[in-house]
Amino acid sequence: MTEIPLSILPAPRIVPRDGHGISRKDISPNALRVLYRLREGGFSGYLVGGAVRDLLIGGHPKDFDVATDATPEQVKSLFRNCRIIGRRFRLAHVVYGREIIEVATFRANVDDGSGDRETVGEGRLLRDNVYGTIEDDAVRRDFTANALYYTVDDFSVRDYVGGFEDVQARVLKLIGDPEARYREDPVRMLRAVRLSSKLDFSIDPEAAEPIPRLAPLLSGAAPARLFDECLKMFLAGHAEKSFLSLEKHGLLPVLFPETAKAIITNRSGALRTMLVQALRNTDQRIAEDKPVTPAFLFAALLWPAYCRELAVLQKGGTDPLVAQQRAADRVTLHQADRIALPRRFSQPMQEIWLLQPRFGQRMRKRVFRLLSHPRFRAAFDFLELRQSGSPEVADDVAFWREAQLQSPEQLADRLGPSKPRSDEAVEEDGVAVEGDAPKKRRRRRRKPANAEAASVVGPSE
Ligand code: ATP
Ligand code: MG
Asked: Would you call 395 a catalytic residue per the annotation?
C-alpha cells in the first residue's frame, strides 16, 4: 500500500449544502433510511464512492454505498433486514426488497475483494480486516473522484483528497503514487479506462502515463474479475469508447491478446471495422433498452481471433468444417487464460460463429432448418454486422432478411423445387442440426475448394 502519512493530509474540505448540487430527492430513500438509522444509533454514516461522484455530475447512481464507523455486527444490531457477507472483509448488506444498501466499516489499506492479493509475493501483510478512520478509508480508494463522503448531519460533502475539484474538472486522478497504486491492483488501470469512458472524464496524465508500461501486470488478475470488468465496460452503454480507450492505453493486447494480434495483421482493417461496429450497435441497443447478451458481445470481441485461427488452420490444409470447430475451441480456450467467460456464454458464442457459413446455402431443406435453429436470430444479427467489414456478405443478408418475412409457402416458391435426397446428403455440411436423421457418411464434393470456410474468412476479413 502506498503509505500516505495522514499527518500530511490537509484537513478535509467540507463543501456545505449550498456549495454542491446533491439533493436528497436524488438519493435512494433506502440509502437515506440507512444513513438516518446509523445516526440515531450514535454512529457516523456517509454515502460514498460512485454514488456521490455520479450525483455531483447530475447522474443517476445505479447503487448507493454507505461507509460507517460502526462494525458490521453493530450495523446488524440496528437493522432487522441486515445480513453480513464476506469472509475476508466483512460487509453489512441492508436488504430492501430488490435493493441492497452495502454498508462498509471504514477500513485502512486495501482489499479490493478480488482474491488477487494472495498471488502477490511474500512479505505483504494481508491486513484486510483492519478497520480504520474515515481518512484511512478515503486514501485506500482508487481515484480522488471516488473518495467523497456525503453526510445527512448537515448535507455536506467531505473531501480528504481533492476529489471535489477533480469532479468539477471531470478528471480521474489516482490517490497517491500512480505506479504504486497500479502495482497494488492492476485492475485499477481498467477502471481508469472504464470510468473515464462512462463518465466522460479525462484520465490525468500522471495516472495515464504508467498504463502502457504496466499493462502486462493485468495478466495476473483473476479471470473472473476481468470478466466482470468486461461486462461493465462493454454492456453498460459505453462499449465503443471503452474499446478505443483500451487500444489507446495499450491494454487491448493484455485483455484480448489474439484479437489484438488479428487486428494488427488484418491489412484491410475489416476485422477492426466490424468489431467497432458491433460495439456501437451494442451501445445503441442499450440506449433503446433492448436486450444485449454476453454471448453476442464476446462473439464479436473474439471474431478477429477466430478468423485468424481459422485462416491458419485452412492454410495448413485442415478440412474446413474441422477447422471451424477447432478454431472456435482454440480461441475459447486461449481466451479463458485471461477472461473467465462462463460456458453458458461461450457455447452460444461458438454457435454464432459456426452458423455463419450456413447462410451461404440455399437448399430448400437447409434454409428451413436454419430458419428454425434456436440460434438463428443471433447468428443472423451477427451476419448483418459482418457486412460492415465484409460487403461481400450483402447478398446473404438480403436473402435471409427477406426469408424471415416470407410465409413458408412464399419462401418455398422462391427457393424452387427441392433437390433429390441424394444430393442433400452429398452437400451435408456436417454442422449438427437438431432432429437430423443419422446420415450416411459420404465424401463431400467440394466446389469450389474450401468454399464454406472462405465465405467466413472472406478476402477482406
Ligand atoms: P460504478 O458506477 O461503475 O459502480 P464505482 O466507482 O461505484 O463505479 P464500484 O466498483 O462500485 O465502482 O466501487 C465502489 C467504490 O469502491 C469506488 O468508488 C471506490 O471508492 C472503491 N473501489 C472500487 N474498486 C477499487 C479498487 N480496485 N481500488 C480502490 N478502491 C476501489
Ligand atoms: Mg458502484
From this structure: no
Does residue 187 have its Cβ closer than 6 Å to ligand 1? yes
The band of 6, judged by pLDDT with boundaries at 50, 70 and 90, is: low
Query: Is 63 in the active site?
Result: yes
For 15, other C-beta atoms within 10 Å of its C-beta total: 19
As a whole number of angstroms, the distance between CA 188 and CA 229 comes to 10
Peptide bond into 342 cis (omega under 30): no
**pLDDT tens column, 238-281:** 999 999 999 999 999 999 999 999 999 999 999 999 999 999 99
- CB 396 near ligand 1, within 6 Å: no
pLDDT number for residue 431: 30
Q: Is 111 in the pocket of ligand 1 (CB under 6 A)?
A: no
Reported as half-sphere exposure (CB side, CA atoms, 13 A), residue 83 has a value of 6
Protein residues placing their CB within 5 Å of the ion ligand 2: 50
Cα distance between residue 242 and residue 441, in whole Å: 48
Which residue among 26, 63, 128, 136 is the active-site one?
A: 63
Nearest CA to ligand 1 atom 4: 50
pTM of the model: 0.86
Q: What is the pLDDT of residues 194-219, one digit of tens each?
A: 999 999 999 999 999 999 999 999 99
List of domains in the chain: 6-210 (3.30.460.10), 222-433 (1.10.3090.10)
**Catalytic site residue 185?**
no
